[in-house]
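The authors assume throughout that readers already know how a fold can be written as discrete tokens. In essence, backbone conformation is discretised, so a fold becomes a row of integers matching the chain in length. A single example would do more here than another paragraph of explanation. For illustration, here is how one protein appears when written out as sequence plus structure tokens:

…
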Amino acid sequence: AIFEKNGSTASPWATIDLTMPQPSVVQISPYTSSAIYLGVSPDGAVVTANDVAMTLHLFDAKTGAAIPTMLDGFADHVVDPAFSPDATLLAFSGNVSGYYPVEFYRSDLDVVDYDAATTSFSNLRTLVPLFSSAICFPSFSPDSKSLRSIVIAPG
């Protein structure tokens, strides 16, 4: 869950345990967080968060601790992370142009391989290169064999 304070860009994220009779917050990130969109791994162990600076970072879902990965080095405005159901890929919008989260007008559709055993990413590739539309909010099919996203045309 992402919590937002009215009139503030600070937006901490939290893990909420829904298995308890009374759901409770397991952890909450610092209130200096500026998370906008979360991608949760299928096993719920890790979370990718993108922030207002259009960067991606990986976190332990139970403790909120940052996990250093290649995502930390991306400098090409990346947003909207989504794990594949088989936990082998992470898709996201890259090279975003415009104002995020709702007013960007151009982007790529990118993926990286994900290794859950080592919580690491590799093999960055662009599936759909930058063009005059925004490709956003990627979503995998349940069998992880296809990917869908919203395409927003300018104008």
